């Protein structure tokens, strides 16, 4: 089965699917979306491996080494918006806070899908590492979970220990639940990435 790209070029079935991603491709009888081949009436073919313990440790190591991430949300007018935020985490679940009236909070009220990156600069390109996620960011309404997220802040941001902890009604806390995680690790080769599902 040949694939037809958005610009009309036909690609034979021998072309590796990974060379085409993450572009969305029109198929004769379906769509290739992200890393999954979806056809009407046919069960979805899973090509993302589930997370094993080694990947989980690597991802948690990257999350624990950092405390700032870039979050991209979708504005109601269709423009993506990228914002830098601090975060804390409980395992693979991340939390960040913002003002309830912020554009970011308004975007998430409209569409809770986000993409995020966690990484840092390095002088040696072959040591670049980081991760990105496709995730859902949903507001936390349970007072116990809000208190838990706030209690993790001092350990992650000790320099703010002297500042008063914001009151729950003054902020909006979002829980980030990953759907797909991409681990970038140049020590395995230039541009090497592994995509896994939690």
Characterise the protein shown here.
The protein is an alpha+beta fold. It folds into 2 domains: 3-45, no CATH class; 53-196, Electron Transport, Fmn-binding Protein, Chain A (Pnp Oxidase, Chain A), CATH 2.30.110. It has 4 helices and 14 strands. Strands 7, 8, 9, 10, 11, 12, 13 and 14 form an 8-stranded antiparallel beta sheet that branches. A 6-stranded antiparallel beta sheet has the order 2-1-3-4-5-6, with no helix packed on it. A hairpin with a 5-residue loop joins strand 7 (68-74) and strand 8. The two termini are 31 Å apart. The model is unreliable at 1-46 (pLDDT under 50).
What's the helix and strand layout?
Elements: E1 3-4, E2 10-11, E3 25-27, E4 31-33, E5 36-39, E6 42-45, H1 53-65, E7 68-74, E8 80-86, E9 88-90, E10 93-98, H2 103-110, E11 113-119, E12 129-139, H3 143-151, H4 153-156, E13 172-185, E14 193-196
Antiparallel strand pairs: 1-2, 1-3, 3-4, 4-5, 5-6, 7-8, 7-11, 9-10, 10-13, 11-12, 12-13, 13-14
């Amino acid at each position: 089965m040949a694939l037809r790209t958005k610009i009309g070029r036909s690609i034979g079935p021998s072309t590796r699917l990974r060379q085409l991603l993450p572009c969305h491709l029109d198929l004769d009888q379906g769509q290739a979306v992200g890393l999954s081949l979806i056809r009407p009436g046919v069960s979805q073919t899973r090509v993302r491996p589930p997370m094993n313990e080694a990947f989980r440790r690597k991802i948690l190591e990257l999350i624990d080494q950092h405390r700032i991430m870039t979050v991209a949300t979708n504005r109601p007018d269709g423009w993506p918006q990228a914002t830098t935020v601090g975060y804390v985490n409980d395992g693979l679940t991340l939390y960040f806070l913002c003002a309830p009236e912020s554009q970011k909070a308004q975007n998430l009220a409209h569409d809770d899908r986000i993409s995020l990156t966690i990484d840092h600069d390095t002088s040696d390109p072959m040591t670049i590492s980081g991760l990105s996620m496709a995730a859902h960011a949903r507001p936390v309404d349970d007072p116990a979970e809000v208190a838990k997220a706030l209690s993790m802040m001092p350990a992650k941001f000790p320099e703010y220990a002297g500042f008063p902890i914001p009151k729950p009604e003054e902020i909006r806390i979002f829980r980030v639940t990953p759907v797909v995680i991409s681990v970038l690790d140049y020590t395995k080769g230039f541009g090497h990435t592994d995509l896994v599902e939690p």
